[in-house]
Amino acid sequence: MIELEYDFPLWRPPSEGENLILQASLGCSFNGCTFCSMYKTKRFAAKPLERLFAEIDQAARDWPDAHRVFLADGDALVLPTDHLLRILERLALRLPNLARVAVYATPVNLWRKSEAELAALKAHKLSLIYLGIESGSGDILRRIRKGTTPQSMAGAIARGRAAGLKISATVILGLGGRRRWQDHIDETAGLINQAPPHYLSTLQLRLAPEVQARFQEKFGEPFEPQDDAGMLAEQARLIAALDPPRPIIFRSNHASNALPLAGTLPKDRPHLLAQLGAAGRGEIRLRPRIVRGL
Fold first, then answer.
1. What backbone torsions phi and psi does residue 180 show, to the nearest 5 degrees?
2. Residues 258-288: pLDDT tens digits?
3. Measured between alpha carbons, how far is 101 from 92 in angstroms, rounded to an integer?
4. How many alpha carbons lie under 13 Å from residue 66 in its C-beta half-sphere?
5. Contact indicator for 165, 129 with CB cutoff of 8 Å
6. For residues 183, 152, 15 and 198, what is the CA-based torsion angle, rounded to 10 degrees?
7. 228, 286 in Cβ contact below 8 A?
8. Model pTM above 0.90
9. CA separation, residue 33 to residues 7, 235, 262, 276 (Å)
């Protein structure tokens, strides 16, 4: 009997913690972002279908009622469409209650799939894409070696939405440091207002020791990290500036955040800003640093 074998480290979004996780690929096909340490120990590869099918079959025996699946690792959407469709067909065959499959993706992944390919994946229950925006500032994206532009990011979100896919986007607070935080936040708000995702979450920048030197080198100038007060100021400025044409479900529930927040924008903007103000005055306790994580 085969068992699920994970190639660690294994990363997933907070909202996928109670769902079935399968590694369709190992590592990240780009793996060049200077702030990210998640896949630096891995070489990108697709997991052989024969092996993955055996793991799906075993998972179905162990958890026959599983209805949500997350396909790891870093950007499984890079896999060829026919390869992904075979995975989705196997999941549907073995999991009768399957309702949703989700993946991480890069903007390039979305651009390289045709509209017909994205629609076919959606028809086979791949319905949620986790997309790292990080920043809406072209300057910041260049400094962190993200490998994309704000215009490409906006277009990728639009392509996903047009295919009926839900987009869950992340922004990293603190990514501009103390010198460039206002541009980082203002241009990020502009991008989200232009191309709103369905879900938006924020993380706080926390550089693992093994990536700090390269991050500093490529940033192009001395980088001064934000403290908690600076992170709260960034969060408040972002929320105040967000006025999307469609409602966005907002969360800051990632373990890196000093202050967990939840609401729908723009409807809950006053409440969220009030919480941030109270936290800034010390009326709401911040998450202790010792329990914050990447």
1. -120, 20
2. 999 999 999 999 999 999 999 999 999 999 9
3. 10
4. 25
5. yes
6. 90
7. yes
8. yes
9. 21, 22, 28, 29
Which one of 3.20.20.70, 3.30.1330.10, 3.40.50.300, 3.30.1330.100 gives the CATH number of domain 14-281? 3.20.20.70
Determine which helix (DSSP H) or strand (DSSP E) holds 59, and give its type and residue range. helix 49-62
Q: Are 131 and 197 in contact, with CB atoms under 8 Å apart?
A: yes
What is the C-alpha to C-alpha distance for residues 262 and 15, in angstroms, rounded to an integer? 13
Handedness of CA 215, 217, 220, 225 (dihedral sign): positive
What are the residue ranges spanned by the domains of the chain? 14-281
- Cα–Cα nearest to 189, from 148, 244, 232, 229: 244
DSSP string, 152-219: HHHHHHHHHHHTT-EEEEEEEETTTTTTSHHHHHHHHHHHHHHS--SEEEEEE----HHHHHHHHHHH
Question: What does the alpha-carbon distance between residue 212 and residue 184 come to, in Å, rounded to a whole number?
Answer: 20
* Residue with token string 């047009």: 162
Q: 201 has which bridge partners?
A: 170, 251
pLDDT digits (tens, 9 = 90+) for 104-117: 999 999 999 999 99
Is residue 25 classed as helix, strand or coil in its secondary structure? strand
Residue 283 tokens read as: 């009326």
